[in-house]
């Protein structure tokens, strides 16, 4: 039902300097797989095989990841390392990849608007690669769960999780009416509120399904906090003029945009692949 997924990937990743001076933050590996590859695998599991990526200066490594490398494949052919490329090559064959550049770093809303020519007039997923998400079971990824919500209600859907009230200043936060278990009809959205101003502790994380009218709302959205165009502000207007749902997903999210979350994810996936460390 939804074939396209947009990956905003133009940010500088300054919390991981000096590594991100030369390596896109989306290419930082969790064990031996780049963050963005986990996101593309999640999108494909949800049926989204047209992958649109908004990049910026110094992000060519992302394009190289999702392209065949005949020299490298020849070098590892017949060795036990050949299988290490299989997952990536399967994605290359199963998906199409398109790219555009964000001219200026003007926030997530602007990055999504930059991707409009790649998406067109249809609903689409959005994945922020530094939010690494896993479902309660491998066959039930977060984006797939959200696609099922969209199939029923045909409106924009944002993923949410409960956070400590002291952490609301890091997120967009929603208030809404629960229409069924774990699903809320959004009435209010606030971008990075102080704890005393937050309408709830239900925070938006880096998974969205958006209807194409979001582009019109983004064009009308004035820069907000930090002079950036916030997707939260556009979604709030969309909610006031229609319906936006917030979905508390089944699974776990790792904030790989922070060093703590990145290490936590690395430990989790290491143990999943190799068992507990001695």
Write structural notes for this entry:
The protein is of the alpha/beta class. It has one domain (about 5-275): Spore Coat Polysaccharide Biosynthesis Protein SpsA, Chain A (Alpha-Beta Complex), CATH 3.90.550. About 30% of the residues lie in helices and about 25% in strands. It contains 10 helices and 13 strands. It has helices at about 35-45, 60-65, 70-75, 85-95, 110-115, 115-120, 140-155, 215-220, 230-240, 260-275, and strands at about 5-10, 30, 35, 50-55, 95-100, 125, 130-135, 155-160, 170-180, 185-190, 200-210, 245-250, 250-255. The strands form 3 sheets. Strands 8-11-9-10-12 form a 5-stranded mixed β-barrel. A two-stranded antiparallel ribbon has the order 2-3. A two-stranded antiparallel ribbon has the order 7-13. β9 (about 170-180) and β10 form a beta hairpin. α8 (about 215-220) crosses α9 (about 230-240). The longest helix has 16 residues, at about 260-275.
Strand order of the largest sheet: 8-11-9-10-12
Task: Please write the string of helix (H) and strand (E) elements.
Answer: EEEHEHHHEHHEEHEEEEHHEEH
Give the oligomer, counting copies of the same chain as homo and different chains as hetero: single chain
Counted by DSSP, the helix tally is: 10
Number of strands: 13
From the spread of the alpha carbons, the general shape counts as: globular
Biggest beta sheet summary: 5 strands, mixed, barrel
The CATH C-level class name: Alpha Beta
Extract low-pLDDT stretches: none
- Calculate the terminal CA-CA distance, rounded to whole Å: 45 Å
Q: Gyration radius, to the nearest Å?
A: 18 Å
What count of structural domains?
1
